[in-house]
Design goal:
alpha+beta, Glutaredoxin, Glutathione S-transferase Yfyf (Class Pi), Chain A, domain 2, 2 domains, four-stranded mixed β-sheet, two-stranded antiparallel ribbon, 9 helices, binds glutathione
Length: 326
């Protein structure tokens, strides 16, 4: 684990001393957008036209943020259009590493990909990374924006599931509000609890997390999905955290007031989303557990990976009683 300072790798754990024991996630720094015609998107510069075979995604199977991008890639049918390579499960002194030189960039570590894009880069070398073969640079390292690009920019290309819209115009206000709340309390909330280095910072995060989960469970008692009858990006963003919750966050990040299995609605909702065709293939439970339990020596010094829990994500989800759009 470490970060780049002016293009030079330095090994350091998260600095929580300056923030009262609180973990503060850095903002992503490559914020360009792939668009249908290469026009600039909401941020960054233009020149990234949607083309088959031009873009390459670097992911960690453990990472909930990278997982979003794999899910939307699968649902939109972009597997032959955007290629993928994976880092190794453990993230130790060199940060994320590749088993063999990364095929597109020749890099042995994620930080080397960042330096190829910006020789003076300062910041953490995070995944996902969306790489452009043509300009040999990083288009984006922000998963929330990568899934928006995947949702719409490639719709004109052959083989793409253009009719699937995970961010429909009429639901955008509601989706944005859900995302902001769920990001702060749940997606990032588990990290805030797990990486806290004071009791007060942990208490604050874990309380906010479980009050949000309690509310979400109630919401899903009468709604099939977060916004109602159709699945949107808000559901997939919540899903990647729920999937890791019982096997990782309960133990490793001390998010143990309740399990997802204890929530009647969240547990069925998790199983329903997991059972959607193409989704199970985007998840690797063993790699996920190995990453978390094996990479954070300050939290789990022995690196021992627990055996459980037993989970049956293929069990009936029972959500059919609620209305879904067809
Ligand atoms: N804002 C980023 C966050 C990505 C992120 O934090 N990824 C983690 C893995 S789960 C990472 O690569 N961390 C490496 C580090 O912090 O050094 C996104 O959503 O794309």
């Amino acid at each position: 684990m470490g970060r780049l300072v002016n293009g030079v790798w330095s090994t350091e754990w998260y600095d929580t001393a300056s923030t009262g024991g609180r973990f503060v996630r850095q903002d992503a720094s490559f914020r360009n957008w792939i668009t249908a015609d290469g026009a600039p998107g909401p941020s960054g510069t233009g020149g990234f036209r949607a083309e088959a075979g031009r873009y390459h995604l670097i992911v960690a199977m453990a990472c909930p943020w990278a997982h979003r991008t794999l899910i939307v890639r699968a649902l939109k049918g972009l597997q032959d259009i955007v290629t993928v390579s994976r880092v190794e499960p453990l993230m130790l002194d060199d940060g994320w590493t590749f088993a063999d030189p990364e095929p597109e960039t020749g890099a042995l570590t994620a930080w080397q990909v960042y330096v190829k894009a910006d020789p003076q880069f300062t910041g953490r070398a995070t995944v996902p990374i969306l790489w452009d073969r043509k300009q040999r640079t990083i288009v984006s390292n922000e998963s929330a924006e990568i899934i928006r690009m995947f949702n719409s920019a490639f719709n004109g290309l052959a083989g793409v599931n253009a009719s699937l819209d995970l961010y429909p115009e009429e639901l955008r206000g509601e989706i944005d509000a859900l995302n902001a709340h769920i990001y702060d309390r749940v997606n990032n909330g588990v990290y805030k609890a797990g990486f806290a280095t004071t009791q007060a910072a942990y208490d604050e995060a874990v309380t906010a997390l479980f009050s949000a989960l309690d509310d979400l469970d109630q919401r899903l008692a009468t709604r099939r999905y977060l916004t109602g009858t159709r699945i949107t990006e808000a559901d997939w963003r919540l899903f990647t955290t729920l999937l890791r919750f019982d096997p990782v966050y309960v133990g490793h990040f001390k998010c143990n007031i309740r399990r997802i299995a204890d929530y009647p609605n969240l547990s069925g909702y998790l199983r329903e989303l997991y059972q959607i065709p193409g989704i199970a293939e985007t998840f690797d439970l063993a790699a996920t557990k190995l990453h978390y339990y094996g990479s954070h020596a300050t939290i789990n010094p022995t690196g021992i990976v627990p055996a459980g829990p037993e989970m049956d994500l293929a069990a009936p989800h029972g959500r059919d009683r609620l209305l879904a759009a067809v």
